[in-house]
Every structure is written in structure tokens, then in C-alpha cells.
Amino acid sequence: MARAGRLIAPHGHDSLDKTDAALESSSRGLRVLAVSFAVLMVTAAVQAVIVVRSGSVALLGDTLHNVADALTAVPLAIAFSVGRRAATRRFTYGYGRAEDLAGIVIVLIIAATAGLAGYEAVNRLVDPRDISAVGWVAAAGVVGFLGNEWVARYRIKVGREIGSAALVADGLHARTDGFTSLAVLLGAGGSALGFPLADPIVGLLITVAICFVLRDAAREIYHRLMDAVDPGLVDQAEAVLRTVGGVRRVGSVRLRWIGHALHAEVEILVGHDLTLLQAHALAVEAEHRLIHEMPRLRAATVHTDPYDPSGADHHAPLNSHRIT
Predict the structure, then answer these.
(1) What is the pLDDT of residues 101-141, one digit of tens each?
(2) Alpha helices in the chain (DSSP H)
(3) Does domain 20-225 have CATH number 3.90.740.10?
(4) Are residues 306 and 33 in contact, defined by beta-carbon separation less than 8 angstroms?
(5) Nearest CA-CA partner of 60 in 120, 101, 102
(6) Of 209, 246, 262, 315, which alpha carbon lies 20 to 30 A from 29's?
């Protein structure tokens, strides 16, 4: 097969820089998870005390949700730690996929939370009871909102800075939890006005909100497991490759997330009369541009094909082996 060959262009100082950046981003992620875990557990503890005193199932649902949100930090922290391990001959891409496994655990935790909160709310609808300490219940709802909103901002900010979609999604989850905490105020207000069913009704509404979060989280994890990426990233990679002098055409571009790092496999068409060294130099430049202009990209494999004006198919021997 007439071709310049499969050219994997290692880029020495960038590889080292990217590895250091990856370790630092994992360390920052671990710090965020530790701090947010502490904040949410304190928030949930304050709410739990008031749940025992008041008997509010709306507040119980919100408390359980906050506990679940805090617990999602545990599998994520494990995943960040495992993801820092170096690649091996068995795990040749490293351990970044541990974040996706953590995502599955998070989805299961959210599902269990929805089921428990819904069960308690239905029980209270069947057997309605007045709640006490209405003022404290309302205060607990405000505490839940403030705790979740602080955690949401912290997770989203750092998640975007280090390129962790899992951390950003967890931050958005916390923000949703904050608004469900405010819903507790409605239940407390209804009970104060002599409508005891307001509390379990709000509890059911919180359960529905949790189910929406569950749907979004499950969809996000499904996309990651299926190697889905934002099409805009593919457009960006193609645009970068077109700026490389000597690239006649851009072929296929494949991107995948491995943890919070992006990896690329691309094909470029170069002049068919180039020497091997010249084609290799173009592959090096293409990888160099991709790594520098796509901040979340950690590694790229660049494959060069000859651009032949005669239209010859230099991959003909492989055609019968390709899946169409």
C-alpha cells in the first residue's frame, strides 16, 4: 500500500506538560470533592436534626437528596485517584475511564434517593400528619439552598477549568438540589396555613425533580460510555488541521473522552510526492497544533495518507476488512 505510513508523532515537552497538568487537575478535583463533601454533609446534618423534630417528609426528601449528593463525591474521588495511575500494558489508555464507572454509581445513588423520598411522601399522603416547628423547617430549606448553591458554583468553576465534565455535571446537580431545597418552604407554608397535605405533596414534587436529575445524569453517562463528544469539538479539530501548511485535506477525525482528558485520532492527506521525513514533519506539526489549540486534548495520533491527483485508492487492500 503506497502511503507515507502511520505516523505517531510524540511531542516531548508537551507530553510532559500535559501529564503534569493532568496530575494537577486531578489534585484540584480531589480538593473540590473533599470540600464539597464536608459542606453538604454539614448541611444535611443540620436538616436531619430538624427532620427528627418536625416530621416533615418534604424536608426528609431534601435531606436524603443532599446526603446522596455528598456521597457522589466518594466514587468521584476514587475515580480521580485511580485515574492518576500510569498506563500499563494491559490498560494502555490508562485509568481515566474510572470516572465513567463512578458516574454509574452516582446514577444508582440518585435513583435510590428518588425511590426512598417518593416512598416516604406517598406514605404521608395515605396517612397525613401535621408537622411541627414549621419555622425551623423553612430555615432548613434555606440552609439546603445556600449549601448546594455554594457547592454548585465551586464544582462548576473548577470542573470547567480542569475539563472535567463529570465534575461540572455534579455541580449542576447540586444547583438543582438547591432549588428543590427552596421547595421545602412551600410545604412549610402550606402546613402553617392549615393544609397538612402540602408537605407530602411537596415531597412528591421533590421526588419528581430528583427523577429529572436522574434522567439527565443517566444520559450524560450513557454518552460518555458510548464515546459521544460535542460535534463542535470535531469542527474545532478539523479547523485546526486545515491551518497546517502542507495538509491538502482532512480525513476522519475521532475524539473520545478518557476521564477529563480528550484524546484524538485523525487522518490528514499530504502530497504524494513527499518524503517520509517530510510527511512525518507534517504529522508532528498537526499534533503540535491540536495539543496547543485544544486545551483539553492530552494526546493525538496523526495518520498521514498520500493525496494522489490520479485518484488511486491506496487503501484498496483494506476495503474488504472495513465495516461500512
Answers:
(1) 888 887 887 788 788 778 877 877 777 766 667 778 888 88
(2) 12-54, 57-71, 73-83, 98-126, 134-162, 165-192, 198-225, 231-242, 276-293
(3) no
(4) no
(5) 120
(6) 209
The model's pTM = 0.75
Distance CA 304, CA 283 (A): 7
Q: Contact, 250 vs 283, CB < 8 A?
A: no
191: left (phi over 0), alpha (psi -120 to 50) or beta: alpha
Residue that has been written with the C-alpha cell 459542606 in this structure: 39
Report the distance separating Cα 148 and Cα 107, nearest Å: 18
Listed residue (250, 305, 247, 302) closest to 272, CA to CA: 305
> Which three three-digit cell numbers place residue 152?
454548585
Predicted confidence (pLDDT) per residue in 190-206, tens digit: 777 777 777 778 778 87
Name the DSSP letter for residue 83.
H
Query: Residue 200 in contact with residue 124, Cβ under 8 Å?
Result: yes
In this structure, is the dihedral angle defined by the CA atoms of residues 278, 281, 283 and 289, taken in order, positive or negative?
Answer: negative
